[in-house]
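The methods section describes the discrete structure representation at length, but only in general terms. The central task, working out the structure tokens from the amino acid sequence alone, is never made concrete. Nothing conveys this as quickly as seeing an actual entry. For illustration, here is how one protein appears when written out as sequence plus structure tokens:
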Amino acid sequence: MRKTDLKEYSESEVMKMLMRVVNTGSQPGNCYVLKSNSGEMLLLDCGCKYKDILKAIDYMTSDVSGVLLTHEHGDHRESFKNLMNLGIQIYTNDETVEHLQIITGELMKGVPEKRPFRVGSFTVIPFYLPHTTRDKDTGQLIPCFNYGYIVEHEEIGKLLYMTDFEYCKYNFKAMRLNHLVIECNYCGELVDKTAENYTHRLKGHCSLDTCKGLVNTNHTAALRTVTLVHLSNEAADPEQILSEIQETSGADTIVQIAAPGLEINLDLCPF
């Protein structure tokens, strides 16, 4: 090959597999974009404003292979109808499909837990995580059917997405996860025990102590990034959370707190 046949690319021209944070938290909602080197995208939840999602995907709706929806709450599913109207398939559990009153033929599909399925070039394994919701008639807390997802892609390895859960009974260490996208909602000492949502927070969201335990349990030398999502505005100390999770993860793991517009390089290739 002649030297003139080789094209040199600037650093800004080289595509990297990344995750882009659209939004995170109860307000204004949760949505994260996985974007491959080819431009193909997969959304993790769609719980924020439609216009914000469009902007985050650079208005390239045809490049979105699908949406992984965790559960029924508005801060995770707000824009699902807009996305279905664009012809984008949404995947979730059967209970969420039923709750949202999806009719046959609409582009929301319940997928069975623990069974891998393909979304474009991504391989996905869903599993249940414990969450709570309020019964619309009694106001009492009842179980909310909530999925976590393992997402695998040749460019990123394995990514684990878990949000809105009290605990996780599974150990993923043997899978040698490369990326964690995990809720760290509150610090125990900052929770207002008199607040109306006190029990829901404890039974439906992940504490700093629980998050540290999960990071420690699933940590291997393969873990490259930890992205902390869905922090409470009232009961989380971002500096404390970042410091303690970084200490748990070790210096070789990049730990970041999700914020709108943040981009995380997920590419396994170091250059």
